[in-house]
From TrEMBL:
Transport as UniProt keyword: no
Matches recorded under SUPFAM superfamilies: Periplasmic binding protein-like I
Origin species: Agromyces ramosus
Occurrences of domain ABC transporter substrate-binding protein PnrA-like (ranges): 47-295
UniProt signal peptide: 1-28
Keywords assigned: Cell membrane, Lipoprotein, Membrane, Signal
Stated family: Belongs to the BMP lipoprotein family.
Taxonomy, superkingdom: Bacteria
Cell compartments where the protein resides: Cell membrane
Protein name, UniProt field: Basic membrane protein A
Membrane topology of the entry: Lipid-anchor
Length: 366
């Protein structure tokens, strides 16, 4: 377990896009106690990672970047606690409570039970839950009034990635695998499969999806979120079945997939998730067709800015294509290999999803 307290500084963190990326979240005020002067805020925002750690080049890193940017703008210090295993979650949250944190951000679906227990025990503190609604009784509402969920209907963006993958595949076989079969992982895989199915329906093709069975809502999973030999073997098994587009969903497991792709000696496109992996990990940039992005960094930033200025709002935020909370990253090095008509079609499909003319199924869909 690693715990640090520091004055926020952007340093080498990736720069943010427009602060308005997540429509519906409050914008940063012009005078918020930052470097522009005024009385310093008596406010301590904190964050606990899941077992992937803050250097996962994915959703933990994005959440951390949002924390750092918000703390820097507010002119306050922040605390971070990095979990090495799931067994650390409850004790890490207790650690942050004991250190006087005002707002605690929990990163990841698996942290939700510990977050709820901590929130119920500390009703005067504010909690921000990334990737889970913290609805353990499944009644459609968050279980504690002091928790703000930041969640993402990534099936919508994954649908576009599936359509794109089917349109660029030369073998007619694409594949996906995940870390653990939990909703925030499966939603990518299911949206991806729906996009491939739609491509087949529109074009009279039969592109296959390996690694995910929509009917049974199950597929290929590593059992964790580590870049290890298990992840590499699963990726290799899909490659051996002739896939030429591969979507690994689960933080660092994409690194194992990239290693398997390089070992194959074939041209196989890699899809990133959460962040634009081309930017967070340039070492795999040449393999990336695109990434399915979630605006975790900006969502975290906006929620902490609100809380730091006494405007904490527990209303859940759901990122969609319409509010740009989810999106596809640029094609980067693959730009010349994506036909213009296919790129134009993706824009058309996005517009149709936003308009409700195409319904992408997911547990977050209305």
């Amino acid at each position: 377990m690693k715990v640090t307290t520091r004055k926020a500084a952007l340093g080498g963190l990736a720069m943010f896009g427009a602060a308005a990326l997540l429509a519906g979240c409050a914008q940063a005020p012009e005078d918020n106690g930052g470097d522009g002067g005024g009385e310093a805020l008596d406010y301590l925002p904190c964050m606990v990672s899941d077992a992937g750690g803050f250097d996962d080049k994915s959703f933990n890193q994005l959440g951390f970047e949002g924390l750092v940017k918000a703390a820097d703008e507010l002119g306050v210090e922040y605390n971070e606690v990095e979990s090495a295993a799931e067994t650390d979650y409850a004790s890490n949250l207790t650690n942050l409570v004991d250190q006087g944190c005002n707002t605690i951000v929990t990163v990841g679906f698996l942290l939700a039970p510990a977050a709820l227990e901590s929130a119920e025990a500390n009703p005067d503190l504010e909690y921000i839950s990334i990737d889970d609604t913290v609805d353990t009784d499944f009644d459609g509402t968050t279980d504690a009034p002091n928790i703000k969920p930041i969640i993402f209907d990534t099936a919508q963006a994954a649908f576009l990635a599936g359509y794109l993958s089917a349109g660029t595949s030369q073998t007619g076989v694409v594949g996906t695998f995940g870390g653990i079969n939990i909703p925030t992982v499966a939603i990518f895989m299911d949206g991806f499969a729906q996009g491939v199915e739609y491509y087949n329906e529109e074009n009279g093709t039969a592109v296959k999806v390996l690694g995910w069975d929509r009917a049974n809502q199950d597929g290929s999973f590593t059992g964790g979120f580590e870049a290890n030999d298990t992840a590499r073997q699963i990726a290799q098994g899909l490659i051996d079945q002739n896939v030429d587009v591969l979507l690994p969903v689960g933080g660092p497991i994409y690194q194992s997939a990239a290693a398997a792709i390089r070992d194959s000696g074939r041209e196989i496109a890699l899809l990133g998730v959460d962040a634009d992996v081309y930017e967070t990990d340039p070492s795999v940039g040449d393999l990336l067709l695109t990434s399915i992005r979630k605006g975790i960094d900006v969502g975290t930033y906006n929620a902490i800015i609100e809380a730091g200025n006494g405007e904490f709002d527990p209303t859940p935020f759901v990122g969609t294509l319409e509010n740009e909370g989810v999106s596809l990253a640029p094609f980067h090095d693959w730009e010349d290999r994506v036909p213009a008509e296919l790129a134009d079609k993706l824009t058309e499909l996005q517009d149709a999803i936003v308009a409700g003319d195409i319904v992408v199924e997911s547990y977050l869909a209305e």
